[in-house]
Write a structure and sequence with these properties.
By secondary structure, this protein is mainly α. The chain contains seven helices and two strands, in the order ααααααββα.
């Protein structure tokens, strides 16, 4: 539903806070920018990196002894390091975008979700954002984030 239709159903104070939050979400969305070269070519880079990783692993454990004799142990180490290096480079490249997404979700959690909606910025410049209707969380019921964190804590609890 359009943002204005969602805001019309709220009281004046909540509507004003939600409108300000929508403006902040839109401003955050404008700072994201287009995907980087690494993100656009991730599938092909991952396939190449995985092939090099498998070749390096094969040379390391003796399945491809000729490769180890040609490039040496340092070359094998480089081949094995390509795939983890790609993963690390990808994580670094999306770090800022993830932080922005977390800020946008925090604004949605505070201003839209209690009223039964989640705000999404406009797809293009000058277009209005939309609100997707969702069931508001019940009072005292843990949020989705809290449930996931509790499951993670239970699964990773330190044991003797």
């Amino acid at each position: 539903m359009p943002l204005e239709a969602f805001l019309a159903a709220l009281d004046d104070n909540a509507a004003e806070e939600a409108r300000a939050a929508a403006g902040q979400i839109d401003a955050l969305e404008r700072t994201v920018g287009p995907p980087s070269w690494l993100e656009r070519n991730l599938i092909s880079l991952a396939l190449i990196a995985m092939a090099l990783f498998l070749a390096g692993t094969g040379a390391l454990i003796g399945l491809l002894p000729w490769l180890r004799s040609v490039i040496g142990l340092s070359g094998v180490t480089l081949l094995v390091a390509v795939f983890p290096g790609l993963v690390l480079a990808y994580l670094i490249s999306v770090k800022g975008r993830t932080a922005i997404d977390n800020k946008k979700m925090a604004l949605n959690d505070k201003h839209f979700l209690p009223h039964g909606g989640v705000y999404f910025s406009a797809a293009g410049e000058g277009e209005p954002g939309i609100v997707v209707r969702v069931d508001p969380p019940a009072k005292g019921e843990p949020t989705l984030r809290e449930r996931v964190e509790a499951q993670y804590d239970a699964a990773t609890k330190r044991r003797w």
